[in-house]
Amino acid sequence: MKQLILSFILILTCCIGKYPCAYGESIELTAGAFKGAEPFYTSQERNGKIKISGMNVEIINAFVRKAPEFQIKLQSQMLPVPRLFKYLQDNTVQVVFGVAKNTEREKIYQYSDIPLYPVKFSFIVRADDKEVHHISTFEEMKRSGGTVLGVRGSNAINLFEKKTNHLSIPTEVVPTIEQNFKKMFAGRGRYFVFNNYSLIDGAKQFGFYDRIIMIPLVLKEGYHWLVFSKAVPQEVVQKANAVLHELQESGELRKIYERYGNLQ
């Protein structure tokens, strides 16, 4: 009898919380969004209310359509990277879609077992600068001449300088994506390096989409993942992994990220 009572208490404790037991209850998770991370997360004000959209939000919507038992509430305010990671660590936020992986983060958070999408640090040039359309090595870039531009706050230029330190290719950090495009088209920079999604989104947003080429050379390739706080039970993480596998196998993930990450 005592064991039966203890089992009942355990089940009741589980079921009144935000996580499920084994009876098909809904799984309630609060999700966070990164500030200044277009097109992964984009915010717009409509009728006095902030609406968050973007590539990761499309993935969230596809995820919930596939598994309606997940009730994912996206916070209405996008947060700077350090604050969002703090919220994830203290379980104010339980899940974030679209996070790069590194050793330190793996110690603090739980990662999905497959990535959401690939990410490339790519270079774009002007479509009329045909001399450099073929560039596929840093040595070729050095011989062709020109400055590499990057966005302030991104680590793209730091990565580039570490990888090409022996070549002494000139670089310049510029405050915004729009200013980088304007500088390149004014002839004060030959290459613009950033993640492929933000390059394409910026080109569309600021009217340069039909005037650029993405060259074969890639600075770095990686992935963005689905990440959970350590407080989220393994059972929930495993359920989410199963959903991601379904989205991957059906081609739904690819359909979303290729629309944002490829020059058509």
TrEMBL record:
Its domain of life reads Bacteria
Q: Which residues form a coiled coil?
A: none
Q: Does the keyword tRNA processing apply?
A: no
Q: Which SMART domains match?
A: PBPb (SM00062)
What the entry lists under InterPro entries is as follows: Solute-binding_3/MltF_N
Pfam annotation, one family? SBP_bac_3
Q: What is this protein called?
A: Extracellular solute-binding protein, family 3
